[in-house]
Structure formats: structure tokens, C-alpha cells
Amino acid sequence: MIGGSLAGNNLLTGGFTWISGGINGTSVTIATNSLLKIAGTGLNDLPDVRMTNYGTVAWSSGTIRSGGCSASLVYNYGVWDLQADLIFNDAYGCANAQFNNYGTLRKSVGSSTNSSQFQGGVYLNNYGDVDIRSGTFSLQGGGSFLAGTATNSVGFLQLNSANYTLNGTVTTTNFQLAGATLTGNNVINGSFAWLHGAMDNNAALTVATMDC
Description:
The protein has strands spanning about 5, 10, 15-20, 20-25, 25-30, 35-45, 50-55, 55-65, 70-75, 80, 85-90, 95-100, 105, 115-120, 120-125, 130, 135-140, 145, 150, 155-160, 165, 170-180, 185-200, 205. By secondary structure, the chain is mainly beta. It has a ten-stranded parallel barrel with strand order 8-10-13-16-19-22-20-17-14-11.
């Protein structure tokens, strides 16, 4: 798709490339064993959209702009792969955006000087695996890690601003609190690095027993 927009309820089966244009006030489902490539150099608009991925989303370029008063809701049950240093923002505001990860949210390509960013207004709920294999993935809009895992043994997953709650399995100190705030009841299962940032006045932090 180059320009234009998708409307109504859409099922993508097989392969589809999204270069530019919008998916507006509608729903999109990527079927199992199917591939959506996001591969433009401009803006990919996703306001008021429910996107459900059972296949693979290969995002290699372009900025995703989300939000809207019905919210942008992403449900990832497959693989969502960031293949560059990329931006997912809340340009449309109002009800903001939620990225709900039940599968694998991966960053496979990235530099040591830049980062991929879920910016303010984009909230990450993780129930699956966040797998940062290269570069840095910066979370700036808040989130919860109440289940699932973070397995970034090479790249860095940083909580840079807004509020987060942790209670999943963390396998590396490359998962870092770097300016954000922990809130609620937090449990560190595995390894975690507190570089700078805060704990809310009503927050609790438990460091679980580590098997030797």
C-alpha cells in the first residue's frame, strides 16, 4: 500500500507491504503464516485501529503514528520484528495507544548510538517475550511486565520515562530502569539493572530467590 487507506475489517493472508498511508478507524488481522512488511520512509498512520497479528510483522522503516479517541490497540500473538531504529508514537493523542504482546516483540537490528522508541502515549503490556538482539529499545509511555519474559542478552531494554510494574521473568541486567518510575507491586525474577529513576511512594519491590 502506497498512500490511500484501508477501511472496514481487513484480513491479510499471505504477504502485504505497507509503504505509506493510513489504516483508519478499522481492524486489521494478519493471519497465521502471513507477513506484513512495513517498509516506507515516511508516515504509517494507525489511528483508532485494532490490529491483531498471528503471523509476522517485519518493520524495517517508517514511523508508526497511533492514537485517536477510540485508541490504537495492537495485539501481537506472532512475531513483531523491529529491523532498524524506529519510532512508534502517539501523534493523534486522545485515548493513546496500547501494544499488547502475547507473542514475541523483537528488535533484531539497531545501532549502538540510536534506539527504537515506543514514545509517550504508547503503553506496552507484555505477556509474551521481549527479545532485544541488537541496539536499544526505549520505552517512554509506560507499561506492565506482569507475566512473560525479557530475554535481551545482547541489546538493551530501557524504561526511560512514565510508570511501569514488573513481575515477569527477567534474564539479563540489560533490562534497565533508566529514568522511569516503578509503581505497584514489583517482583524481580532474575536480573535487572537500576541505573536511575524512582519508585513510587506506594510501590513495593521484592527481589526473588535466585537458584544457584
